[in-house]
Amino acid sequence: MSNMTFGKYIPLDSVIHKMDPRSKILAMLILIVAIFFPSGWIGYGVIGLCVFIVVLLSKLNIKIILNAMKPMMMMLIFLLFINTLVIKQGDLLFNIYGYTIYSEAIFQTLYITVRLFLMIMITTTLTATTKPLDLTLGIEDLLSPFKKIGVPSHEIAMLISIALRFIPDLIEETQRIMKAQASRGVDLKEGSFKEKIMAILSLIVPLFISALSRAEDLANAMEARGYSPGKERTRYKTLKMVFKDYVLIASSFVLLIAMIVLSRIYA
Residue ranges per domain, the chain? Predict the structure, then answer.
């Protein structure tokens, strides 16, 4: 859990770090849409290669991406178990005491795993290369056209940025509580099922109390500084897109079109 990196900004000197947050957010959304098109292994291979190039350009360690994938492993194992029970198509691979596993179940699980891995790579790269404040400004600017229909763009951007900012803090707080409980004799790994449930409860309750306390402190701090939702606000920092930002957005659109074409071929 200490290696959890999602939501953390990693200050590095790279071309991706210096790009406008709006272009990176738009590129992320376009690529996520492209991932959901059934473009086959060739399509996902192309997307993976493009995302890997972006990771290299951002100078991020590939271990950061792999660490972000670790919390999903239990969900993927559960998904594999469900698929083997439900999907009975393809070639029969195993038959263990009546428990049958077909090739289509393995294929579908791998398909979903690749999709999740690509999405985690994209979102982790975004949060690792974009400051929380820049992310807030970028989301607010992208949502600003919807103000005409009453969408509170600034408040939505603020909520998203606060949520992303609190993810690393909650992870660190969880680790601290686990160490404190372990020093008091609470064993989260050994014991019966009932004992493990009680140990988890001893972790969840103080974590919720800490999270609510942090939220209250943040609300008091914002109120003390005169923050008022819905009011017009000025900015010290203004965003400006340059040529490389437009290249990133255009490349993402080209990749999306390619995935649509491939999905038509594999349909």
Answer: 1-152+240-267, 162-229
